[in-house]
Every structure is written in C-alpha cells, then in structure tokens.
Amino acid sequence: MLSILLLNGPNLNLLGKREPEVYGRETLQDVVKRLEKVMQEWDGHLEHCQSNHEGDLIDAIHRAKGVHNGIIINPGAFTHYSYAIRDALAAVEIPTIEVHISNVHKREEFRHTSVIAPVVIGQIVGLGIDGYEWALRSLAARVQSK
C-alpha cells in the first residue's frame, strides 16, 4: 500500500492567514484534505505532521523509515539552514520531494538557497498549493513504478 508522509515546517500552520498575497487563502487543513482525496485514487495512506520545531520534524523523518514510501516536505525557513533536517532525509533514504508555495527564486536573496535540495528527488516551487498535489502525483508514480 502506498504511504506518504507530508511534512510542513514553521509558520505553515498559519496558511490562509499569513501573507495571503504570497501564500494564498487556503489553509493547511485544506491542503491535507486535498492530498487525502488524491491518495484515495491509489487506496493509499497520508500521514501529516506540521511543526514549528526542527526536532519534531527530524523525529517524524526518522519514524518514516520502513513505514512510508515517500516524503513530501515544505521545510519553510528550515530550507535555508537546517543541515539537521537535510541529514535526516539523507539518512532514511526515502524518496522525497521539496515543495514551496511561493517562487522562492523571485523573493529575497536568502530564500534562493536550499540545503535540502541536494538530498531530494526534486523541488516544486511557485505553484501555490497545487505544488503539493503535483509532488504527490510525481512521488506516487515514482515509488509505484519500482
């Protein structure tokens, strides 16, 4: 059975309220419901974890080994400096896609670098919350073809 872990980092619990001109008006719960509906197409399971704490995300990544076929992660600000999250993803060797709602490359300079990118399959940036669905569909196709 297909099982995907969806991880969202700091401040993503404020989706729909935080800078809606950048991140949109849909909430994180809207994102989760949408992806759960997509997972029904594969009769799969989606587990979601959002935390503003780096260690919580790392613990979730560690627990994913042997449980989930793939990970979708929006690390939020941890994208730019969390070598600990990067190392956790590398250690568990689970196919992972990094998602960002906004186009980070059109924003402030500090947002242009991801320390996570070298250990993931790829990134989806700038497609709003649609990016989560594209990540899920791509990840599901990859892990099911193996």
Automatic annotation (TrEMBL):
This entry's Gene Ontology molecular function terms read: 3-dehydroquinate dehydratase activity
Write out the pathway annotation from the protein's UniProt entry. Metabolic intermediate biosynthesis; chorismate biosynthesis; chorismate from D-erythrose 4-phosphate and phosphoenolpyruvate: step 3/7
Any one Pfam family here would be: DHquinase_II
**Oligomer status and interactors:** Homododecamer.
Query: Which top EC class is named for this enzyme in its record?
Result: lyase
Q: What does the record give as the organism's lineage?
A: Bacteria, Bacillati, Bacillota, Bacilli, Bacillales
Question: Can you say what this protein is called?
Answer: 3-dehydroquinate dehydratase
Q: Where does substrate bind?
A: N74, H80, D87, I101, S102, R111
Active-site residues from the entry: Y23, H100
Q: Which Gene3D superfamilies match?
A: Dehydroquinase, class II
Q: Which GO terms describe its biological process?
A: amino acid biosynthetic process; aromatic amino acid family biosynthetic process; chorismate biosynthetic process; quinate catabolic process
Q: Where is this site: Transition state stabilizer?
A: R18
What EC number(s) does its UniProt record assign? Answer: 4.2.1.10
- Species source reads Brevibacillus composti
Q: What gene is this protein translated from?
A: aroQ
